[in-house]
Write a structure and sequence with these properties.
Elements (H helix, E strand, L loop, with lengths): L2 H29 L4 H9 L14 H30 L1 H19 L5 H29 L2 H33 L12 H7 L2 H11 L6 H6 L3 H12 L1 H14 L12 E2 L2 E2 L1 H15 L2 H14 L4 H25 L5 H25 L2 E2 L2 E7 L4 E10 L5 E10 L11 E7 L1 H4 L7 E5 L6 E2 L2 H4 L2 E6 L2 E6 L2 E2 L6 H19 L2 H11 L6 H29 L1 H22 L12 H4 L4
Antiparallel strand pairs: 1-2, 3-12, 4-7, 4-9, 5-6, 5-8, 8-11, 10-11
Helix pairs in contact: 1-4, 1-5, 1-6, 1-8, 2-3, 3-4, 3-5, 3-20, 4-5, 4-8, 5-6, 5-19, 5-20, 6-7, 6-14, 6-19, 10-11, 12-19, 12-20, 12-21, 13-14, 14-18, 15-18, 15-19, 15-21, 20-21
Length: 587
């Protein structure tokens, strides 16, 4: 076996350990999906101690924030990880993150109230936010320039595998146990095990991190040149190690060691830091995490069953894993910038198709059937109250006429009357729910689709019915549903082969040695902030109109293309020690 083979094997081993942080990052962000319905039910149980005294009517707000708090923790974890790794090193920071992952996994599966559950999710957010900074920095700093893109892409590969494993483990555990709320091993509910499973890779991450070397560039920053020389000799060969150490020293400020203030510039931050922030924000603004956080909600909202939604979600997760290999194969051959540009084009087109389909799809139910007593006749004006996602309420009169039974009609106790909302609502796709009042005495709604809603009140034969209108991609619209599934997976392919892995590669390599920790911390925390914003606003946008939501993501993809073409420099083949040129506006 040649020295080059030994060097490559050593590299792959230590990069794989660092990428385990990415796996946990992906797993932790996705595992919550399987537990949310159970947590919601626990919160609303009469006399529930889990609700910790909160009003059960606030379930969506409280449970939603307990889930979303992990993203706030991630933003804080990412921001603090940069200075922390500069102070104590990349390797100790990995071990701290592993401990936080382990504690969060155990604690999230044994909450007493929604309050301590929120704390454990916040702690998990701190961990995967920190991991999102530590892993790309470490991988970039141990990788030679000609392999850095491919090795850096292992971070994203680990993330998407983590997401996929979390989704599949949730599904398998729920199916074996008979449901997320059902008892499983040891008599503990299945949803608890969904969290506890994460303890295994978390412990493995911490144990393996103990056996990898510290980043050679961090060691040089701390004037530990002999230790750095030992690591670089294993990566680059002994002859190149001394030259590289001298080169690293040349890129560091002679006045002080790296610090957070090094990233400051005339416009708050140096231009290269703003570019990193832009990459991070656009990676989230195209809506990728909507697919993984809300995919089941999306598919069920367009008429698919729960089983069909799980299958479509699994297809999307598998597609995301497989397409990451495209980026790994091409990133060091054709470069970062072309992949980002092609990805933006593919995402813009596929998201645009989805927005078009959702806008054109008929609403279900756009009409419903009532049964009324056979003797019911006359003119009625039903009040159709529409409630938009932004909270606006509009009352629309809907006149109907029920003619007397004809002489030839079969005698019966009831008959059917169809209410068609289309003349009243027009082409609106923004209605989230309808409340029908002033229905004829004795009227009952019989359509299964409408029965999914809640009966708000029944008094004196007057029925008030609330249900959600949603685009229908089933039945006669099955072809449009297939087009939507294809478009969604083309979006995942476009993202997985470009913006998913390439952004992490560039964030790990685009900053100079002097500002890498601080620059990556700011850019990654901006990414988590954007993730939170997109995740929190999707339910509102989707309730107003799925077409609007996906139209926004499509426009973001178009803007990301312009951002890449005009502002992003190519970093393929550049040594980390030459990245300082980018801070001076050179490419």
């Amino acid at each position: 076996m040649s020295d080059n083979d030994n060097n490559l094997g050593f590299l792959i081993r230590i990069v794989a350990v660092a990428a385990l942080g990415g796996f946990l990052f992906g797993f932790d962000t996705a595992v919550i999906n399987g537990a949310v319905p159970v947590l919601r039910a626990m919160f609303t149980e009469p006399g529930s101690t889990f609700a910790a005294g909160f009003d059960p009517s606030q379930v969506d707000l409280i449970v939603g924030q307990s889930v979303a708090i992990a993203l706030i923790g991630a933003a804080i974890g990412a921001f603090t990880a940069g200075p922390l790794t500069n102070r104590i090193g990349r390797k100790p920071a990995m071990i701290i993150a592993a401990i936080a992952f382990l504690a969060s996994a155990i604690g999230s599966g044994m909450p007493v109230t929604i309050i301590d559950f929120t704390f454990w999710r916040f702690l998990g957010g701190l961990a995967f936010g920190a991991a999102s900074v530590i892993a790309p920095a470490y991988i970039a700093e141990v990788s030679p320039a000609h392999l850095r893109g491919r090795l850096g892409s292992m971070q994203q590969l680990a993330i998407v595998i983590g997401i996929f494993v979390a989704l599949m483990s949730n599904l398998i555990i729920a199916q074996i146990a008979g449901g997320a709320a059902e008892a499983w091993i040891g008599g503990f509910a299945a949803w608890k095990w969904m969290f506890w499973i994460e303890a295994i890779p978390a412990a493995l991450y911490g144990i393996l991190a103990l056996g990898i070397p510290e980043s050679p560039r961090y060691l040089v920053i701390k004037d530990r040149d002999e230790e750095a020389r030992s690591v670089l000799a294993k990566v680059l060969g002994s002859q190149a190690a001394d030259a590289k150490i001298s080169e690293i020293h040349g890129t560091l400020s002679t006045e002080h060691k790296p610090r957070l203030s090094d990233i400051l510039g005339p416009g708050l931050f140096k231009k290269i830091v703003w570019l990193g922030i832009g990459l991070s924000v656009f990676q989230q603004f195209v809506g990728i995490n909507v697919v993984f956080y809300y995919s089941n909600l999306l598919w069920e909202s367009v008429g698919l069953s729960e089983d069909q939604a799980f299958i479509n979600t699994a297809i999307g997760g598998a597609t995301n894993v497989l397409t990451t290999f495209i980026a790994i194969a091409l990133v060091d051959k054709i470069g970062r910038k072309p992949l980002l540009a092609f990805g933006s084009i593919g995402m813009a087109l596929s998201l645009g198709v989805m927005a078009f389909v959702f806008n054109a799809a008929p609403l279900n139910p756009d009409k419903i059937n009532l049964t009324v007593p056979a003797s019911t006749t006359g003119s009625y004006t039903i009040n159709v109250e529409t409630r938009g996602a932004e909270g606006t309420i509009e009352s629309l009169p809907m006149p109907i006429t029920i003619d007397p039974l004809g002489a030839d009609d079969e005698p019966a106790e009831t008959r059917t009357v169809t209410l068609d909302f289309r003349p009243v609502l027009g082409e609106s796709r923004g209605t989230t729910e309808l409340v029908l009042t002033e229905l004829p005495v004795g009227a009952e709604i019989v359509d299964p689709a409408a029965k999914e809603g809640d009966i708000v009140a029944t008094a004196d034969g007057i029925v008030t019915k609330r249900f959600t209108l949603k685009p229908d991609l089933t039945g006669d619209q099955r072809t449009m549903g297939i087009i939507t599934l294809i478009a969604l997976n083309l979006f995942i392919i476009s993202f997985g082969a470009s913006w998913g892995p390439i952004v992490w590669v560039m964030l790990g390599e685009m900053f100079s040695n002097q500002i890498r920790g601080a620059g990556l911390a700011v850019a990654a925390s901006a990414q988590w902030g954007a993730n939170y914003l997109i995740s929190a606003t999707f339910p509102l946008m989707a309730a107003a109109s799925l077409a609007f939501a996906y139209g926004f993501y499509s426009i973001s993809a178009v803007v990301s293309l312009l951002f890449v073409l005009v502002l992003i420099p190519e970093t393929k083949g550049k040594e980390l020690e030459s990245m300082g040129e980018l801070e001076d506006g050179k490419s």
